[in-house]
Structures
1.
Amino acid sequence: MKRDSAEFKQRIFDLMNGSLDLEELSVPESEIVKNEFEEGGICAGLYQDIYDAKKRICKKLGVEEDSDVELIIGNLLEIGERQSMKMYDYGRIFS
């Protein structure tokens, strides 16, 4: 797989986010790329803070789920993914 392909970049992103089940799908890049959401890690803690805040907001609103909160979280995740893909491209350009 070519390192500048969209598929490869997505694989790296998925590894970083812990989205790949490495017991089911072994990929060589997993030897280098760290799951940034491993328990006890910074990203895991930040995500837990987001989840807890979401629950508090929903409790204040008296709802199980709020579409505006979900939109905010979803869009921020999308922004992070797009920036990650561009940062990968820039890394390849400048290296």
2.
Amino acid sequence: MKFRNFIGKIKEINDRYREPRIEMSGAVRVSLMALRLYLFVLVGLMVYKFVLVVTG
């Protein structure tokens, strides 16, 4: 029962913040995308290093 309440609360929060409240310029959108890609690259490198350490 608590799990369903937790999932319901997450869905409620996601619905509330689905639309951004502020306007973003093109430069801001590009910067955020670059940061997102940078984050994925860093996480990928960490996973790669972890696999190397564990396997060998």
3.
Amino acid sequence: MTETFPQYRESPCRLPEYFFLNVLGKCYRIRVPWIAIQAVVEIIESPQGYREHSISWNYIPGPTITRQVSTGGAEHILSLAREEGWIE
């Protein structure tokens, strides 16, 4: 007996999310795959020190969500994005 597994590819319900991170006057556009969106949001919502950099996401279908992250949080997100090749 064989079992069929779903194909993991981008579909209308599994679209990537764009995050816009502003650090020191530079805006980074980060394209996060659907499977990692919750992990990035948890980094943003985690307890941090002084929050001074803005990050926004969730442009479609609703209003934009904007939060502040600390320098360490921004560096962590950027290092993850560079490692995974998410920066556009």
4.
Amino acid sequence: MNIDKRWILLLAVASGAAALASVATRSRRRTLRTEHSLEHAMDLRSWENEGGNLAPAPVAATPA
């Protein structure tokens, strides 16, 4: 089977673009996960520094 050199070049460029898009997507996803993890850790530390207790439940008034 005789493949024209232009097709090989086109296939190589398309494969390279697909690989680059895949790497860029993985990198962006990893960055977002890291940012979310760091934000969560900072929020948790902040919450723990406040005493880490939930707000007290409201007390219902009992009729006399």
